Each structure stands twice: as structure tokens, then as C-alpha cells.
Amino acid sequence: MPAGQGLPRSGQAGWMGLLAMRGLIAGNWKMNGLRGPGLELAGAVAAGAKGSAREVLLCPPFPLLALVAERLAGTGIGVGGQDCHAKVSGAHTGDVSAAMLRDVGAGYVILGHSERRADHGESDAVVRAKVEAAVVAGLSPIVCVGETLAEREGGRAVPVVERQLDGSIPETAIGAGLVIAYEPVWAIGTGKVADLEDIEGMHGMIRGWLRQRFGGMGEGVRILYGGSVKAGNAKAILAVPEVNGALVGGASLVAEEFLAIVGG
Ligand code: PGA
User: Fold this and answer.
1) Per-residue confidence at 19, pLDDT binned at 50, 70, 90?
2) Share of the chain above pLDDT 90, in %
3) Which residue among the candidates 147, 183, 219, 257 is catalytic per the annotation?
4) Considering only CA atoms, which residue is closest to atom 1 of ligand 1?
5) What are the tens digits of pLDDT across the range 208-256?
6) Residue with the nearest Cα to atom 7 of ligand 1?
7) Closest-CA residue to 145 (of 233, 191, 210)
8) How far apart are CA 213 and CA 210, in angstroms?
9) φ and ψ at 60, to 5 degrees?
10) Which residues contact 198 (CB under 8 A, 6 or more apart)?
11) Do 45 and 25 touch, CB atoms closer than 8 A?
């Protein structure tokens, strides 16, 4: 059958979009994990996620990245960084470049996480420069957006997220396997999850933004939900229209819990 025949969208962008739309479950370990337990966790995830229909990605802290990448080599599970600097190299004490992440086996990097935006004052412009650097280094950026509780209660959730999208995502990201993670700040690590209708509404808005910005290519960008995703709520969240996977923090630190999300 010729490529694209019988598919709802025609043209290369639509076809590529459909090919790229394999669900993605990414574990964000944040600042957790020493070598022993970290490698054990990675090994358990690799064993349990074998043959998964969804793409699985682990984002350990920097010191474990190379080790986890080696441990996962050949398993089909990817590794990603949790941040990178916008510059290629130089006098930036404590920072890590996108090329360094790529060099030790990362395929992705999380950028603009709300903890980075809050703890390190990262503006949309800073995030955008980091995304550009990631693309140049050959990494797929996972760009995080999301409103605070005050912004949601003030009825400003949508314009806030739109502003973050406008400011954080450069044109170059679309050809680099861009992923967007919608993470309401008030849902991260709190056990609170956004209503399914609110998730659907925001993901629909993000898809519309992607279409407007990138045309047909915008269809192939995966939009992850993040914020207190657990084994018990993952199935319902992952079934919401335009939710193409999850960015998982706390629950990614326990193999059985994370694997239940991967398989849910
Ligand atoms: P959480 O974190 O699952 O612990 O809420 C998600 C994230 O911050 O990526």
C-alpha cells in the first residue's frame, strides 16, 4: 500500500506525524538517585518495559547519565538530560552543554521545567536559547509549560501557557523531534491532578498552537501531561484526547509504579 493511503491525513507532514505519534512515557528522576539504586532502577525498568508499545525514556541526574545510558544500551529505552546550557562550551561553572549530554548517550533533554524556571529564574528567552542549543547538538527537546495555581485561579492559565509556547519554542525545534510537556505547576509533586476536562482543553489549545505555528508538522509533536501522574490515574489521563504520553516525576522512582504507567 502506498505511504499515506487510507490514512486520515495526506501529504508527507501528516504521514510523518502519524509515524511519530508513538506514546512517550518519560521518567524525570530530578535530583534523586545514587549509582547503586539508580542502576538497579534502570535495569528493572528495562526488564519490565521490554516490548512496550510506548516509547520509554529515563532522565537521571547528570552524574548518572552515562552510566544509565550504558546500562540501557540495546534495550530500546532512551535517556535524556534534565537541563542544558545554551552555549556549546566555556566558562560556565556547574553547567553542562547539550553536546556533552549527546556525547554520553542522551537523545532528549527536558528544558524549561517549572523547577528550573522557579529555582534558576529561567525566562522564556533563556529556555528558547537552550532549545536552540539542544537542536544543534542533535537532542530532541522536551519543552515544559504550565501555569501556577494563582494563574489558574485568576483565569489566566491559557494565556500564560500560550505566552510560554510563543517565547520558548524556536522554529528549529520542529525538525528535531520536539516534545511539549504540559505540567500545571500546582500539580507537580502535590498529588493533585488537573481535571480531565482541563487537561483536554489545554492539550487541545497546545495542538492548535502547534498547527498554527508549524502547519502539518505540528500534528506529529507529542504533547505529554505531567504532574502527579501515578499508576492509579495514568490510564484515564493517557486516554484524554491529545495526550500523547506523560512526564513522570515521583512515580518514576519506583520501578513497579513507573512500569504500571508505561503499560497503562
Ligand atoms: P511529579 O513530577 O510526577 O512528581 O508530580 C512531574 C514533573 O515535575 O515532571
Assistant:
1) low
2) 90
3) 183
4) 249
5) 999 999 999 999 999 999 999 999 999 999 999 999 999 999 999 999 9
6) 249
7) 210
8) 5
9) -80, 170
10) 157
11) no
First to last CA, the chain: 32
Which residue's CA is minimally distant from atom 3 of ligand 1?
Answer: 249
Cα 65 to chain centroid, rounded: 16
Q: Ligand 1 pocket, 228 CB below 6 A? A: yes
Instruction: Name the residue type at position 129.
Output: A
Q: With a 6 A CB cut-off, is 237 part of the ligand 1 pocket?
A: no
From 24, 28, 145, the mutation candidate for ligand 1 (largest count of ligand atoms within 8 A of CB) is 28
Per-residue model confidence as pLDDT tens digits over 77-111: 999 999 999 999 999 999 999 999 999 999 999 99
Residue type, 214: F
User: Which stretches does DSSP call E strand in the chain?
Assistant: 24-28, 55-59, 78-81, 108-111, 140-145, 179-182, 222-226, 245-248
Question: Given the CA of residue 227, which atom of ligand 1 is nearest to it?
Answer: 5
Per-residue pLDDT tens for 63-76? Answer: 999 999 999 999 99
Is 202 exposed, middle or buried (CB count within 10 Å of its CB: 0-12, 13-18, 19+)? buried
What is the Cα–Cα distance from 83 to 43, expressed in whole angstroms? 23
Report yes or no on whether pTM surpasses 0.70: yes
Residue 14 parent element (H or E)? helix 12-20
| Inter-helix orientation angle 157-168/124-137, to 10° | 40
Answer yes or no: 120 catalytic: no
CA–centroid distance, residue 22 to ligand 1 (Å): 21
| Residue 107 cell numbers, joined | 537523545
DSSP string, 35-71: HHHHHHHHHHHHHHTTT-SSEEEEE--HHHHHHHHHH
Which atom of ligand 1 is nearest the CA belonging to 251? 3
Point out the ligand 1 atom lying closest to the alpha carbon of residue 144. 9
